[in-house]
Amino acid sequence: ACRCSAAMSGQQSNKIEVLWSPNNDGDLATYGSELKLYTVRELEDEGAGIPPTDLKLSPRHYGHRIGSLNSEVRCMPVHQCVAWQPSNTQPHFFAIGQSSGKALLTNLGLDATTPKLKSVLGPRGGRPCTCLAWNPSESHLLAEGLEKARNDSSLIVWDISRASSEPVIASHRSRPGSEQNTSSEDSAKYFDFGHAEVTSAVAWFPNQSNCLVAGMGSRFLRIFDIRDPASQTQPPKAVANHKAIYGLCVDPSSPHQLASYADGGSVYIWDTRQFARPSYSFTRTGSVVRLAWMPTRPGCLSVLLTEAPYLHLIDLPSFTQSPETQVDTADLYMEHLTSLCDRCPYITSKSKPLPRLTGVAWHTKWENIGLTANSEGGVQELQVFDKMPLSWTANESLVYASSKELLAAAPRATEVQMDISAMMKDRVQHGYGFDVSQAMCYEMLHIINTGSFIPIPA
After folding, report:
1. H or E element in which residue 425 lies
2. pTM over 0.90
């Protein structure tokens, strides 16, 4: 899911965002003025060229284009929201939010006979779509956030299994005595909330398929349980009165933890078990553009700031304590920076300004692997390296930890024999220093076997 803002209107038209596929490990997509689909391939040679339609990711990998939208259906540069459906049956199915509020459902599969445009979902009245998010478990549910309207909802959950191939427009709910009753236009609407207020961000909880959190109005975070039919008229499950309503994302490794940001450089961490106030916050220079949790690294949050050529990586502890026993965690947070300046392939000279990053996406399975998009329209593969502790064993082996694995490396037998520590150990085992005559015999045998002379200290 992504957030749209009116502030995007002043940005360059070549600004793009990037997404990893939730279905196929090697697929990715970029979107800006056009939605493009790629699959990752290895380069035979680091200096080998690639077709102009492909995308250079790193010296070892490139993205081969396998699909794109036609000119009749384009992403809007100002209001761009794209969400990739997690589905094994349709691995290349997207929802695209438009400035008119419509959500286009399209399939970019390799089969040319498959129609690309499936259906169109949207509310009555032209108002921009601000965010989109697919349910990670029940992939037929799509949450859409919209700008405010006086007599209509700004948060709508669509059930695309009820949508037809024709445009589906959500009408107002019928009033008693009205001839306009439920129809195919309302059949796709599964849940709606939020009259006369804007929905700026929405995210699903991965461990609770019927719960979602939304940033609404000017300062409300609301958690909804859409299983209850009466929840549309009753108060939400939980509410936090706070200005950090943007960029909502739930930590996949900690189901009770989520992050959001406010206008400026303030980022807030929330625990849904104590939702009245944030559990931690920090502020950085600049305005926050994107928040993203690393799925393969528990408790690691990446923060992207405006005009910054690098990412902020924040390591956060997992909240495993119960709300009654949880202690103040203000001193438990650690931050470190991972700079992309030295590895950026788009820099041709030291005097050229570094391209600012505009988007980041982390792979759900490949450990510490991500993609970054920059202001020049380029996409780069990113790998985060952890600290690697080392330890020598008594038998000359090296033990080290890499990611979640503990590895050991043993030296070759010839290297062990030439090592002075191995020689001294062998000498002691043969009585070196205890019996001079025996030591002299050992030295003679060593000369005969190796042809070299090692003096024995007096």
Report:
1. helix 420-429
2. no
